[in-house]
Amino acid sequence: MTASAQPQVDAAAKGPGRPRDPEADRAILQATIELLGEEGYEGLSIEGVAARAGVGKTTVYRRWSSKEPLVVEAIGRCKSPEDPALPRADESTRDALVRVLNHFTRAVELSESGRMMAGLIVEMSHNPELAQAVRTGILEHRRSFVFAILKRGIERGEIRQDVDVEVVADMLSGPVVMRLLLTGGPITPRLVRKVVETMLDGIALS
Predict the structure, then answer these.
(1) Residue 204, SS3?
(2) What is the extent of the structural domain holding 162?
(3) 31 contacts 49 by C-beta, under 8 angstroms
(4) Euclidean distance between CA atoms 153 and 193, whole angstroms
């Protein structure tokens, strides 16, 4: 949205009983997502969001009383890249995990949600509402694909029956998160395959 459009956007939001302008909502939420990825939660400000969205800060405050509810809603609206395809009938658990984890690894590196996650990680440690919004808005959907593949592997006799799929899912994603947030090491398809193969060697049905 250009600066010249600001008066029209602000005007549309004014007046008791007038409906919220959906274009202003979209611009504000998109600006919030972008700035979270660039500056993190601590660096995010209502003023900065308003400037990026091309609206006045009063337009933002009419909708959200502070940046926390704004960020929570932005997380809920954040769209992930297209979901990976479900496993084919002839696809092994190993190949399905490698394919799906590569898909989501690229999403972490390239998508808005991935950049946003890096910007939120510190704040999540002491902000339970924000942490829950991230889990339900971004993580749970992606983890559900890994859970489904692991459960399918158990049903097909490729993985032991006693495996805790939630723990395994955490362990599969751990090296990627470690490199993304701490070590800065490369996140490559070779890394993903190595992680999957190492994990399956420990939980496969012998």
Answers:
(1) strand
(2) 93-203
(3) yes
(4) 17
